[in-house]
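B., you asked whether I could sanity-check this one before it goes into the benchmark set. Here's the sequence:
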Amino acid sequence: MGTPDGDRVSGDGSGDPRESVRDDSEAYRIRMAIAPEGMRAELVSAFAGDREMTDAERAFVRERMEGRGSVFYSDLFYAISHHYFAPDIAEALWNKVLLHKHLISERLGRNVRMTVATLDYFSNITRELRTPTLISEDYASEISNLSMRDGMTGLFNHSSCYELLELEFRSHRRHGRGLALIMSDIDDFKAVNDRHGHQEGDRVLIEVARKLSEEVRESDICCRFGGEEFIAILPFTSDPEEACGIAERIRAKAKEIAVGEQRITISAGVAVCGAGTPTPGSLIESTDKALYRAKQEGKDRIVLWGAP
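And here's what the prediction gave me:
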């Protein structure tokens, strides 16, 4: 295991860290909200009355309502807008958007689907109903995706990283679920841009993002934190060896990327959320400090924050 003294982590932990660990984390809920087998936008649209639901769909929605409780309406909004609304306001907001849908459908003389009505409500309604500006559902899906994703790499962007980490931190606090973070940085990335040009630098960023996505587990969340920095949020992870094993896999895979004769390396900091971690921001800060030590100790290594 890596230490603050800069020892490189060796080994890849027990088992394949790419395997899903559990299926009830907030990260998994978010993924299921947009997966074909989950609470997808088309099913939410049907639930809102845009088409007749099948018996199987009714049973699925009923099961979701019973199982998720007050979070059910948060799930609905996430599926159609990719934005999280707290359970204590989501149900009331759902009824307001549903009313908005009916009003603009009557005004236009045709059914306006729930996905369009939702985005229109969020974009154009303040204190009173005004003349709606409608956009296509394809465009609505596109801009909601762009609002959460980094345009170059396709990973979650900086602001989404904080939002998703906040959700996982709440689960950690409420249910005692493990949570760990990996912050990685491409070593000497400025030299890549200076020697080979920004187009080649962009290719490296895309390739590192792809390696990162391939080496984490299905339940993990990959983000481009900024520039050449990446973050992997690891729900249900309280074992430092497990977190470092995933980081080590990412580090090893990055070396497969070459720019001319130069092999790409990354440094990474790892931190595990504990009882003394007061906020999500403090977890990021610890991970950043571990990354800094990895850089100071020679780069191309993994450092675990707080290791003895």
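One thing to flag: The first strand starts at residue 179 and ends at 186. Otherwise nothing jumped out at me.
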